[in-house]
User: What shape does this take?
Amino acid sequence: MKAGLDTLITGEADYPTEVKAKDIGINLILGGHRETEVFGVRNLAARIRAQM
Assistant: This one.
């Protein structure tokens, strides 16, 4: 929030984190443990390579 961000993207979060995100008014995207570690990282790497 201090940095001006409005979204947290992570693999998994506990319930208190979900409640806190709602309370402070930020988006919370839970991508799943395996999906964010395998497919998400591979996709991000491909996008970075394409921009270089």
